[in-house]
Amino acid sequence: MDVNRVKQILSSSADIEVKYKGVSVWIDQVNEDGKMATVHLRGPLEERSIVEISELEERE
């Protein structure tokens, strides 16, 4: 995924499924460097991780 698509997903009201290493995540924000994003797992756990945007995958 690229940074522009991540920004589109963040500004969308739609529920767009994004996966990181096969696990569904919510994108919280794009970091200032434009290469990393802060995400957290979908579900009850709110543990946040900083991941490379290039490793995020959009599911249709």
Automatic annotation (TrEMBL):
Transmembrane segments: none
Gene designation: sspH
Alphabetized UniProt keyword annotations: Sporulation
Subcellular location: Spore core
Predominant subcellular localization, coarse grouping: other
Signal peptide: none
Organism, scientific name: Lederbergia citrea
CC per GO annotation: endospore-forming forespore
Induction per the UniProt record: Expressed only in the forespore compartment of sporulating cells.
HAMAP family reported in the protein's UniProt record: SspH (MF_00667)
Source taxon at top rank: Bacteria
NCBIfam families: SASP_H
Family note: Belongs to the SspH family.
Pfam families listed in its UniProt record: SspH
Gene Ontology BP term (one): asexual sporulation
Protein name: Small, acid-soluble spore protein H
